[in-house]
Amino acid sequence: MNHKPRRSTSANHPPLVATRLLDQLRERIRYLHYSLRTEQAYVHWTKTFIRFHQMRHPRDMGGAEVEAFLSHMTTHGNVSVSTHRQALSALLFLYREVLGMDLPWMNDMARPTARPRIPSVLTIDEVAALLSRTEGETGLLARLLYGTGMRLMEGLRLRVKDLDIPRKVITVREAKGGKDRVVMLPQVLVAPMSAQLDKARAVWTADRAAQQPGVETPHALDRKYPRAGETWAWFWVFPSPTLATDPRSGVIRRHHLYEQRLQRALKLAVTEAGIAKPVSVHTLRHSFATHLLQAGTDIRTVQELLGHSDVSTTMIYTHVLKMAAGTTRSPLDALLAA
Q: What is the DSSP secondary structure assignment for residue 97, as one 8-state letter?
């Protein structure tokens, strides 16, 4: 298939050094400071797309092949809307940013619209029952996520410098959308978080004594201050108990606590508490927002605490409150009361 590319959106980027397609993809993703998760997802969808079309090079394919691939995912793979959109984003990134091809069909490619879903929310008693069955670092992390509304990775990636215990505030850095925000540190977590910092400092001290490489830092900072990752300020609040290989640099260093530790602990706690609802770590965030609104907190304040760009995203929690508050009476109640 012969394509005539228009002006490339990657024209202002430096030329790619790598020669293999997937290495070029990784190189461009890292240049644009996309997260490791995004890199892994985009590489996965590029590989899947190429294999679906019998190992043809993407440069020799176009809109028809992309639509055929996405259609197959939807009709045979029964994937969700979010998965469909992620695969499409990966392929558009590949063509625009890596292959330097800005083709007419890119602008015409339809993105499926996700239907708004009412989130699963726990009652205050259910949260209490759940948290009472968690302990240690995972228990503290679960309390922190519910008490602040942070996402799981936002809590795990907390650095010592982002925790201001005297002022009882936490700065969430480079959250979803690359934005920073400030959330409260609950008074009841001041002492536990101080103790957690003491534990983290012991790990940091041992790493320094063993001359281990510093923790991962943002790329720009790493180039300007190569030893910033060795400082206490940049150390993890929730460090992993073991060292691991950095998937990008290959350096063996200390990472933050593994995310599945809390997921497994929470799943066990849900079973022990007898909660018959779908519960994930993100449910703690949903419950935080709902309980704040239930207590009379202004929705704009909740929006800022959650880091939502648009208040309409936060409004989904008001639907939960309407039913929970019992403001709408069922006609059956009126019938049987008569």
A: I
